[in-house]
Amino acid sequence: MTAKTVKLTVGQALVRYLINQHTEIDGERVQLFAGVFGIFGHGNVTCLSEALEQVQDVLPTWRGQNEQSMALAAIGYGKAKLRRQIMIATTSVGPGATNMVTAAGVAHANRLPVLLLSGDTYNNRLPDPVLQQVEHFGEPSTTVNDSFRAVSRFWDRITHPAQILSSLPQAVATMMDPADCGPAFIGLPQDIQEIAYDYPVAFFEPTLWTIPRNRPDRDQVAAAAELLKTAKKPLIISGGGVRYSGAGEALADFAKARGIPMAETIAGKGAVVHDHPAYVGAIGIEGTDAAKVLAENADVVVAVGTRLQDFTTGSWTTFAPDSRFININAARFDARKHGSLPVVGDALECIAELDQAIGDWVCEPARMDEARGLYADWNQMLDEGQAATNAAVPSYAQVIGVVNKIARPEDTMVTAAGGLPGETVKNWRVKAPNTYDCEFGFSCMGYEIAGAWGHAMAKDGDGVPIVMVGDGSYMMMNSDIHSSVLSGHKMIVVVCDNGGFGVINRLQTGMGVPGFNNLLKDSRVVNKQNPRRVDFAKHAEAMGAYARHCDSLADLEAAMEWALTTDGTTVISIESDAYTWTPGGADWYVGVPEINDRESIREARKGQEAFRAKQRQGI
What we know:
By secondary structure, the protein is of the alpha/beta class.
């Protein structure tokens, strides 16, 4: 007679469940959970690691250098896989757990799946207080793991072995749902991990998960179609949800056939190639002037798969006061923003149904003619900005131009916070779909190298991630250069050294404040005239990477050609200009002191007041 239960510890049962979850990618059945990033401590080493060790050939565990960075690597993997496969990150208790909170924020803001498993203090409290426990006098059940509540889509603490029977399927369902997608957190008290329990064998049966494609309400589609057919100057905004839905080609074809210019958000960049005939570049604060003009005169805006955050909307000043929004999104919360006409559903399904609903309607050709003229002007400006000059220190645009030129279509550009998001959004010309990753939903310094480690795993030799990172972000988190060397996952890292936090210095001085504590020369350093800067090439070599420092754009081009031939992670450094930025894009709502004795700040305040007068209200 077949046993109906199997006796396992909580740690063993959890791992057995995870290895039996599957999904399909391009018709191939694969593990839903592709691996684990782990740093072990007393909170997870004696029980959870015991279970992971037994299945390491099925569910590989990769050793990280920092809890935050390994979770960022897991997020990078999930992004590279377009949310179709998920990585796990596990930590011990206390600081190991709280180090991971920032990464959870990245996943939550960007609607990306990652499973976070953290050790917790003892459920029975007999040995309290234990090593690394933060005690709350009036709330003894509170631990540092409660900090994940604010940055998790699904949060649970297992206090009885049977709870994983309901908790784990709900966690997976959350991560696989386009409307709810985000990080799932499960806290594992140390005494609970060790307990053996008779689990139903059926719980461990292989399960196939698919991402649902929810169709929209027919009345919402009909209303959207009627509104779109009134448009004289429509505009499409393609967001990250378009990429995750696999709707990039369909939306681009729709835009071309219907004569509607198509802009992208930062998260959406890469759904189509740079020279697609309907494409006009990114929109918003770091967008193209072409998209800005088209947004300002648009009467109907079709937003697809975007959160419409302030960098997309120019803090809601980019659009005409009477413009109307059709907002297509899997999440109802996003679809109803700013008085939009909502169409709630999967991007690919919604586009198909909207296309059918508008019949033979096509926008007047003058609208696309306007867009192509504006975009041609923008590309000419990029060409001029990227051209080599005799300047002693190259600009970001020039550095990006060289790297972009050498990058192959299959290589993925990865960047995050600082000046490089805006500069790459404007200057990087995407050669193949889904080869651009700028983490800007949470704008997390340190994502660049860690996220690229995850990308390298996901790409599995099909091209390499090319990281573009400033010296500030590099100094904040760089240890996964060593991780990638150890694991054999190659990346190319281009360090643009502009002597500090260049872009935030631009904002500071642009709002009338003298440069202060951002560039090295404006900080409390021994030698302000010539601060001693890091030798990034030697630093990378010390972690086992190949490395070169470049003194010119010609050096950089040669170094990039060389980097493509190496058999491991390669780091290239070059000094870059902290004061030259690519023009264009919308303005940004920032706080400026209402009263101040400095004339430069008073002038900045006047500018902000005039800017804010253009803001759409939240209706």
